[in-house]
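Chapter review: from sequence to fold.
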Amino acid sequence: MTKKLLGGLTAFALATSLYADELGSSQRFIGLEIGAGQVQGDTPVEIGHEGDAIEYGLRIGAQDGQWRTTFLFDYFDSSDDDQNVEKGMLTVDYFFLDSLSNSVRPFIGVNLGYANYESTFFDDSGVLYGGQVGVVVGLTESIDLDIAFRYSLSDIDIMDHTSEIMLGVNYLF
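The token string follows.
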């Protein structure tokens, strides 16, 4: 598992360094996100149970005209389904069809992170990896609205995957 994590982080670092020289001219942002999350994991009642709950988190990142890098810290807690997930992720998104409008920018991206899954008799941590697709809508020069679908697989034995539909608000500075 350590080799997978180091390999993935190295690949991510190389991919993000391709445009690191432009980060000085990019916009930095901080924001909040909330959405509907689903986790498939083991619970005392059912192996591979899919639980639904509200997920929320904090996001910090930088973006330019074509790329966005974001660090996410999210929390999922479904007391009804006895599932709890904390995760930290790095996402890299590419804005495509940017010429349509400066205020509406669709994106596609990849994510890599680390998660802790807990249930009554289960507690395990591991790597998450996956992708996301969405759109950023510029409300003002300093406020963006972000709507995205994110899907992540896991190498945690007791958790298969997570999926979220998230709404985020970013303050650009």
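Two observations follow directly from the output. Strands lie at 27-41, 49-63, 67-78, 83-95, 104-118, 123-138, 143-154, 159-172. Residues 17-23 have pLDDT under 50 and may be disordered.
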